[in-house]
Design brief:
230 residues, mainly alpha, globular
């Protein structure tokens, strides 16, 4: 048991925290650095050009866009896995909700890579069966099976989502490292609010209204010169 002046953390809780940090760190081999989630096209078109425009873009994705849907799907997967239910249907739904070919590739390739890397802990894939599995479904199932709290999993997942895209923009805009960190600091309340909302969500809460982001993701598929895969 690890003790402090205000909190007491069991070794199991500390192990879960360390595991979650490893799974969603940039070092975990899911290839997240290769994807910009359509931001490369947004920068190309001049829609994202500085810290403020990036913050506004990511805030929209987190609160009412693809990141919100990912959080709802992760939460539903976590609950079904904890209950011992089959997650095939939510896995199929998550795959079907990809708004473009590149987004489908982004979520399924990262999901498959996450499952492969999880063999270091369990050697067992999530209970979704064979075939592609979307990234939030893979993470939600693993978190439930390894005793990680839903709120923690959601917060870490959304933070990793934002952090990865900020790092993409540091390279593309270019955006300085300090501006990148400042963007993450400004997004912290949004990440926490979204995680809290998603923890109490159901599949009825799925839905996004970030149409421009979806269109730009489609446009990125035919962009002449590009650094990222999405």
């Amino acid at each position: 048991m690890i003790t402090g002046t205000a909190i007491t953390i069991t070794m199991a809780e500390a192990a879960s925290l360390a595991r979650l940090m490893t799974w969603l760190s940039p070092a975990f081999p899911v290839g997240s650095f290769a994807y910009s989630h359509g931001l490369e096209r947004a920068i190309h078109d001049g829609l994202i050009r500085d810290r403020q425009s990036l913050r506004e873009w990511l805030e929209a994705l987190l609160g009412r866009g693809s990141a919100w849907n990912d959080a709802v799907l992760l939460a539903e997967t976590w609950r079904q896995t904890r209950a011992g239910d089959d997650i095939v249907e939510v896995a199929e739904l998550a795959e079907a909700m990809s708004g473009s070919r590149e987004r489908h590739m982004e979520t399924t390739l990262q999901g498959d890579a996450f499952v492969d890397a999880m063999a270091a802990w369990s050697g067992e894939p999530p209970a979704g069966g064979e075939g592609p599995i979307a990234y939030p479904v893979a993470v939600g199932s693993a978190a439930a099976r390894h005793g990680i709290a839903l709120a923690d999993a959601l917060t870490a997942y959304l933070h990793a989502f934002a952090s990865n895209l900020v790092q993409a923009c540091v390279r593309l805009i270019p955006l300085g490292q300090r501006d990148g960190v400042a963007t993450l600091a400004a997004l912290e309340p949004v990440i926490l609010r979204t995680a809290q909302r998603a923890a109490g969500s159901t599949l009825d809460d799925l839905g996004a209204c970030t149409i421009r982001a979806d269109i730009l993701s489609m446009n990125h598929e035919t962009q002449y010169s590009r650094v990222f895969r999405s």
